[in-house]
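During the reporting period the student researcher (J.K.) took over the structure-prediction task from the postdoctoral fellow and processed the backlog of single-chain submissions. One of the processed entries is reproduced below for the supervisory committee.
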Amino acid sequence: MFCPSCGREVEAAEKFCTQCGAPVEVVAPVKKSAASRWPKTVGIVGGVVAVAVIVALLVGGIGGTSSPEQTVRTFYREAERLNANGQAALLAREEYREMWAMTLQMSYDMIDSLSFSNLAVSVTSQTEDTAEATAEYDIWFKLKVGTVYPEEHAVDDFELVRVGNKWLIDETDFFYGDWS
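J.K. obtained the following structure tokens:
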């Protein structure tokens, strides 16, 4: 369960958030059919995550990352911070970083809080200069207009390249892959 004010995970028995002090209401989970689970959410969340990844890789403001797994984890950490520039810094193609940072920031301007829980990153293949990784997580977010999207499970595949001492996300493969 998450605080409706700050998005921090709270225990079901708690009546107030231990981080911000906001009252926490117990809300029964909403059941959705498999067909209706993600249509709207994927459009918003998928766009936010995609833009976040690209922006992070493009800006280049994050220091070297020692492994593909660390780069993917940093990507999600920066997304939780709604840090478009931080995410753009993780993109391999410098020429797109500013564009993606601006695009992602437009999405983040609508989001009040974003949380990835149960994040599991696995590197499925790796050579000296390339890697493939999968991130599996539960995502929850609240829009500034008050709409709260309940926790949903998601999986993202990443292709990464080594640039100097950094592992960066190949945004072309991540963002223009199969979105069906």
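The committee noted the following: DSSP finds five helices and four strands in the chain.
J.K. will present the remaining backlog at the next meeting.
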